[in-house]
Amino acid sequence: MCRFLIIIGICFAQVSMSAQIGGSRVYPFLNFSYSARQSALGGSLISVNDDDPSLIIYNPSSISEQHHHSLLLHFTDYFTTTGYGSVLYSHTFKHAGSFAFEARCVQYGTFNGMDEWGYETGHFTAGDCALTAAWGRTLSEHFSIGASLKLLFSGYESYNSFGFATDVSGSFFSKEKQLSLTLLFKNLGSELKPFSPGQYQKIPFDIQLALSHRFKYIPVRYHISLHSLYRWEMGDNSLYTPFYQTDVLTGEINYPTRFAHFADNFFRHIIFGLEIEPVKYLALHCSYNHDMHQEMRIPQRKTIAGFAYGFTVNIYSIRVGFSRVHYAAGAVPNYFTFSANIDELTKLYAKNKKKKLQRIE
User: Fold this and answer.
1) Residue 191's domain spans which residues?
2) Could you say which of 11, 119, 276, 317 has the lowest number of CB atoms within 10 Å?
3) What digits encode the pLDDT tens for the residues 301-312?
4) Is residue 296 part of a domain?
């Protein structure tokens, strides 16, 4: 526990240091969702204690022996020519604890290069990559901790950047009440080599708190995820915001009331998710992200931006997941995830082989 408190202290120190570095955010692909289930439930931290390996890379404190020898493949058909994917493997060592290793890659496509005069200079590509090693350890029946280290690389034409990021989390789980609670410090780190010499940019740091609870008598689990807990203001309150109405007589902008502004900021920090299991091998997921809805909405038009949905089929430890996320009109990417537990498949194969031999005898 002392080591965990020391790590938390280092995290807060890192936050204060990173706040002094100006510039825009770099490595935005760290906020992409690399799990169909995660995407369908809002794309943020989901606090669940089960054997699904698609969630452990977001919450290292959930990595445990139940994920031993789990393998996961993910692909997202993103916007236009952009696509990305990841591969994950988990292994538990007897004394060191449980680990998960992930590699993710994002490809933005091929582009035509132009000089300042408009002449073509050839084709170039752009992409991001990350290698992650995560560790989790169970401290007691109800508490666990975890941390991860990510090595980051971005290459856009002739510009390159290297960096690192760490996640630190702690979880509480009650098996009797089917209740999970997780606190996550996400993406603590920095660029080691920026795109331009001496111009270091921030990485997408976040503090998240997630609650998950499954009802006792009905097959329903709800999720409440809080994000961006290090700041209060989430929206754009500038004079040029297109969502504010203008008084036709005075020409003045009609700003929202204090209560409306407070309510908007409050719900922008919250993501609501719901899982329904109508049968043993099928789970349906849906969620609503108010911050995404507000950022992607269109003036004078109603949209379902911020809504997501999907399903997971789980048969003999083989999971197949699919989801869709509504970012905006015409911008609805598809997420595909496949995972399996090698040990469970090996046992199943041995069991079937034994049955065949018995029939032959």
Assistant:
1) 2-21+33-110+123-234+265-360
2) 119
3) 788 889 999 999
4) yes
Residue 26 lies in a domain: no
Tens of pLDDT, residues 53-100: 998 888 999 999 999 999 999 999 988 888 999 999 999 998 888 999
CA distance 338 to 320: 5
Instruction: List, in order, residues 6 or more apart from 284 with CB less than 8 Å away.
Output: 275, 276, 277, 278, 309, 310, 311
Burial group, residue 168, by CB count within 10 angstroms (0-12, 13-18, 19+): buried
330 found inside a domain: yes
Kindly tell me the sign of the dihedral angle through the C-alpha atoms of 135, 130, 312, 310. Answer: positive
**Average predicted confidence (pLDDT) for the chain:** 85
CATH number of the domain within which 314 lies: 2.40.160.40
Q: In sequence order, which residues have a C-beta less than 8 Å from that of residue 100 and are 6 or more positions away? A: 53, 56, 57, 60, 63, 67, 88, 89, 90, 132, 133, 134, 135, 136, 148
CA 278 to chain centre: 26
